[in-house]
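Running this now, will post back.
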Amino acid sequence: MVKPDQLLTFCKPVSPSTESPGERAAPLVQHTSQSGQQPDTTQAPPKDTPGCAVTGGSSLRANSTAAIGGGPAAGAAPTPGGITSHLTTFYGEVPVANNGTHLHGSVNNNDTWQRRFDAIVPIHTWQYHLSSGAISQHFLKTLVEEWKGMLDRKWNAEHLLTFSLVVLQCTPGVSHSSDIRTHIRDRIKLWHSGTYFDALVSNTVSEVTSHTTGPPKPQSEDSRHRTFNSTVLSGQLRKAIRHLTNRDSGGVLDPANACTKTGLPVLEVLKSKHPQARWSNILQPGSYKAYPKAPDALPLDITAEHVKRATSWLSGAAGVNGIDGVELKQWFLCFGSASIVLHEMMAQTVCWLANNNPPWVTYCALMAYHLVALNKQPGTRPVGIGSAF
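Update: finished.
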């Protein structure tokens, strides 16, 4: 189990170059863009946001103070001559050293939703399990409306991910089935009212932080048996066997712990494993051959049946949206008509991302992840836990 103070960072990958050179900011955590995006001509002015330090349990967007002027941001690696033109010719864009959070994609109040998302994502939340019944159907249909709103460009992905985090968050004292159904129904009503977004987010954060416990206590025999039973019932057989036979050695390291191989603090080891990005020496003039004509790519055709088959194999831990793979699989397979509508919306989303060129800021929250450090015995292994979606 990953404790809140073991979530080292909340990271977003670097964005394509959807802004002018003078607005590019040097990142604290750099990744490379997988594909180029078309420029966002409706971008907002760059934020003057100080860079965040990488600290345990903090929320980190990999940005720093934007450089104002005609040159590149301080600390950014210079682009070798000729490489920029080659990358632009063949891919349409070049990687840029920021995560694109200063963009808004023609969505109002995007800064506000980024702030809400950053406040709730770094903490370790506990989510209610959806059981059969009308309230679960209502929740999933509302979730589909959230996805549709993103595709219709009413809001970005931060909006829909925050929805499930605040609605399904476990509340102390609400444990009976009837009370949980009423609690979820009331949260959905508050969400639809449109006036309680900040209250829902702050309440979720306070509930989690006020009930954060210290180091885990040794489990009794009965407690181990109950954990084994619940893990088996949730479909995680491998995890249950490893837990019962005490093979879950190693575990998660805190940022201040010493690496079992080098003796250095875990935070320093992780920083050394994420060096600053640099331009490859392979990219030289003449590296790419120019062709007079390129064949057109056929658009992908993803159907609800494709989604149904893919979700049957879902697994993995809960990431930034608080939902693990087993729980998400239940959403897609066990709720009748609501699951079918969710299949269709997810297929539509995949086609929209694959066959179009949506603004990066639309879906960048879906690419975010939690960075944790695992004990390799000896050594430290960085692992990113992304959204199950």
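The chain has one domain: 4-68+76-386. More later if anyone needs it.
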